[in-house]
Specification:
The complex is a heterodimer of chains A (319) and B (209). Chain A has 319 residues and is an alpha/beta fold. Chain A is built from 10 helices and 14 strands. In chain A, the strands form 4 sheets. Chain A has a 6-stranded parallel beta sheet, with helices on both faces. Chain A starts with a helix and ends with a strand. Chain B has one domain: OB fold (Dihydrolipoamide Acetyltransferase, E2P). Helix content of chain B is 44%, strand content 25%. Chain B has 7 helices and 6 strands; from the N terminus they run H-H-H-E-H-H-E-E-E-H-H-E-E. In chain B, strand 5 and strand 6 form a beta hairpin. Chain B is elongated. Classes of the chains: A alpha/beta (319), B alpha/beta (209). At the A-B interface, helix 5, helix 6 and strand 11 of A face helix 7 of B.
Chain lengths: 319, 209
Amino acid sequence: MKHSFAIKPFVACLFVLMLLLCSCGNHAGSGKHKKIAVIVSTLNNPWFVVLAQTAAAQAQALGYETKIFDSQNNTSVEADNFENAISAGYNAILFNPTDADGSVSNVQEAKSAGIPVFCMDREVNSVDAATSQILSDSYSGCVAIGKYFVEKMNKRGKYVEILGLVGDNNTWNRSKGFHSVVDFFPGLTMVAQQSADFDRNKAMEVMESILQAHPDINGVFCGNDAMASGAYQALVAAGKANDVKVFGFDGAQDVIESIQAKKILATGMQFPKVIAKTAAMYADEYFKGKRDFPKKMPVEVELVTQENVNDYTGYGKKE
Amino acid sequence: MGKSVLKYAIAAIVFILVAYKSVYFKKLDEVKAEQSAKTFDAAKYAENFWTKKLTPGLHNAVDIDTLIPMLSSNPRQAFDKYSHALGIGNLRYFLIQGKGNVKAIGEDDITLSITRLPDQKIKIATLFIFGNAVRDASGMVNINDFNNTMDFNNVSAEINKIIRVKVLPVVKQLKVGDDVTFTSAIELNKAHLNLSQIEAIPVAVQTIH
């Protein structure tokens, strides 16, 4: 009797375990219980909040469990996020990197664990680490801004450039696109070029200090809209908002409103929702067996000016 | 005493060995040469692209006499058949060719009327030679062949330099009334198609005598 009581719970446990294993296998096959991690460079900037939330919402709409990880613009926090996502059993990562070079090892780690990584907006400097990289065509967007800048400045004047994070390729693609045009006009002189890390408050401080040294500037080009808003705020405080033309990049809601109110002249409309949805759809297609993804998929940037601003809303076109 | 001397001697030898193996010297010239070998040479790539790929295939550019009527009657077909673009979006690029007559010479461009479509005007840029129009209109440069987008974009900047050196001097010789043949890259927005303000980046321009 004792003998039979000892065996029965063991057999029952084995049976339950087998049932669980079978059940897990079935769910993996249907793709319904897979999990997608969204690892984003920062949630301290509304543009990246839209990017992360849209990616998560699209993945959920496709039937996946999701979680957003904030890397706080810090590559080591990002590394922790990758470790956590890998150990928690996430099956794909929709990734917005903090650093083009510094983030490569994190992507490689996920790849080694068999987890596909789809980069969003920002690039990592590796052709084979990520499964696909869906990137804003920042260079072309800033060529368009550069041309508009030259026209609006009447080909002459002093200007300032406020850069984003120096480790991010987008920072330099934007700067290079802008300078590929503006540097051909000898009447336009850049009197200061400083980084404000894509941050509104830092840009305000940077602009305040530049204005002390160069009170006679005519234009400011900022590598994103948060910095354009910060720079504009500093110009308002210095009583120079009407004398200095401000140009941003992103297509953030408050800057679209500022262009409508004729405070900021122009921005480059990136499409974070298009980027995020494409990344989530790529992950879904990956689970369904697709493997031949384009290594890089550029997403076009459109110039938003006071002439065409009514076609746009924050982070995209009006429906 | 003897043992401690031996101990210090061994420690000193180990220290010297570790220090020797930890530091090495290399000529700065060699390091710089290694770095430049790894650096992508956009100017060289652009020159090869221009001479070996783009200019030998210019006769394949779509004739503007064919393109403009098709863009008016069936824009979707025109975009599908003749345009190129890299990724997701409404901006598409065409490599066009045709014949025209110089109507006006401006500060930044030259206005041509198209010989067989006299109501159609295009502006050939003489100042704003920027962006990716030529690279992308050709459909012959693939972003996935490049390690990073900066290298890819530097190719455009170098192609534009070639245009300034090889093509613009010819364009700037033109006078009002000249008949010309041209091959150019143009950018059109398929969601907001505007055929009245076509701006073209010149790739080849010749006066018809």
